[in-house]
Amino acid sequence: MEKQIINTQEAPPPIGPYNQAILAGETLYISGQICLDPKTGELKNKDIQEETNRVMLNLKAILEHAGLSFSHVVKTNIYLTDMNKFSEMNQVYAQYFESKDAPAWAPARETVQVSALPKFVNVEISMIAVK
What we know:
Layout: E1 3-6, E2 21-24, E3 27-33, H1 48-65, E4 73-80, H2 86-95, E5 108-113, E6 123-130
Parallel strand pairs: 4-5
Antiparallel strand pairs: 1-2, 2-3, 3-6, 4-6
Helix pairs in contact: 1-2
């Protein structure tokens, strides 16, 4: 199976020994994204809504660089440091999957609470998409 590294300047560069995404065959595996602004390198973390929006924009940039969109996403993993912020995060997340067909094409997912995330942000999201 052919594997292709996916990296775009429209999303933040990895902060460790990994790539933004790997395309393996027809499946795109996107590494967890946090609220780093790719243009400034600054965190966009005024509140959970701003954080989630920046995360989703980073994921969108990676999807688009691979020639995909949110409609190709089949699975997401969401990590929160405070499950009390679930509803606020979910409102922003849902906007990226809205369509006349929703929730028919909304991906499978889980959301788990964790004790800490890179750079001490409040949300991290990874995705799997299929062409």
